[in-house]
Amino acid sequence: MRNNGYRNGALTAIALLLGMLVLGRAGGPSTAGAGQVTHAGQQASRRPEGGGLIIAADQRKQIMKELQLLRREVDQVNTTLNKGLSVRVTEMPEIRLPKGDG
What we know:
This protein has about 100 residues and is mainly alpha-helical. The chain has helices spanning about 1-25, 55-85; strands at about 35-40, 40-45.
């Protein structure tokens, strides 16, 4: 039972860290479709300087790549947790109990 509590805590921590990673990437400038700009039906192979149009299909492809990468990373973490972790305490600090009132 204690092992399940530890595993749930570890998975929660991992989920929070992955969420922060995703939010960190989402907050930055978008690079999806930055290499292509559509203008009157033609594509230019230069990066727009003052913004430009983002091609939705390219943006979706980039999002899919990021999701696949994230899935692989989560699968690796899951595999590691399912194998089990070996922890060895090499040094333990002295435990001091608080003095009771009675």
